[in-house]
Amino acid sequence: MRPAGVEPERTPRSHIILAYAIAGVVVAADVLTKRWAAIAFRDRPQTVIPGVLNFRFTENPGAAFSLFQNAGPFLGVAAVIAVGAIGASLARPRPTHEVVAFGMIIGGALGNLIDRIARGEGFLDGRVIDWVQLPNFPTFNVADSSVSVAVVVLLIGSWRSGSSASKQSKSREPMNQVGRDDVQA
User: Fold this and answer.
1) Would the pLDDT of 185 be above 50?
2) Catalytic (active site) residue 115
3) If I label 77, which of 69, 97, 121, 166 is the partner at 20 to 30 A Cα–Cα?
4) How confident is the prediction for the chain on average, in pLDDT?
5) Is the model's pLDDT at 130 over the cut of 60?
6) Could you confirm whether 144 is annotated as catalytic?
7) Mean pLDDT in residue range 62-67
8) What is the C-alpha separation between 137 and 153, in angstroms, rounded?
9) Mean pLDDT of 85-114
10) Which residues lie across from 6 on neighbouring strands?
11) pTM of the full predicted structure?
12) Contact, 143 vs 111, CB < 8 A?
């Protein structure tokens, strides 16, 4: 019987299928929404919720949130390495929240990598399309959102598994202490 809060381990094969299915959905959503943004908002931004949400076509030569401007080749190579490392890590059994988050990161990295490859003249120097604009926040896209949500999923999963391990450890302490007293007597 499994302790409460502990899920069965998935086999590496099912990890890989789940992660890459999620990555595929993220890539498809990212590519389709970027294409839509390029057609619908290139010349005319759209206010969705006044003062809160705008759709505005922008091209970003840097990383998420407009960091590392004009570092496309470096970021493209980093994305390839990250996708490879995360993909390789899926060969080991992992909790489902990690598999889901890794799929979201792979999808986000590939979504922006597609722009770097397809939208530039040189090696990985294409500009990434960003189109979702919130107040006091850099313009972003589905790929950026996917990576950000994945980080939140990993943090919550880590916190939950840490608090679960802490509870299990505390529930064993009195029993272990009683056992030590009995041995010493």
Assistant:
1) no
2) no
3) 97
4) 85
5) yes
6) yes
7) 69
8) 21
9) 95
10) none
11) 0.80
12) yes
Catalytic residue among 43, 144, 181, 182: 144
3-9 CB contacts, 8 Å cutoff, 24+ apart? 3/168, 5/160, 5/164, 6/164, 7/95, 7/96, 9/93, 9/94, 9/95
Question: In this structure, what token pair is assigned to residue 75?
Answer: 């970021």
Per residue in 12-50, pLDDT (tens digit) is 788 899 999 999 999 999 999 999 999 999 999 999 999
Catalytic residue among 30, 115, 125, 130: 130
Q: Which residue has the tokens 């990993």?
A: 154
Give CA–CA dist 170/164, Å, rounded: 10
pLDDT at 131 over 90: yes
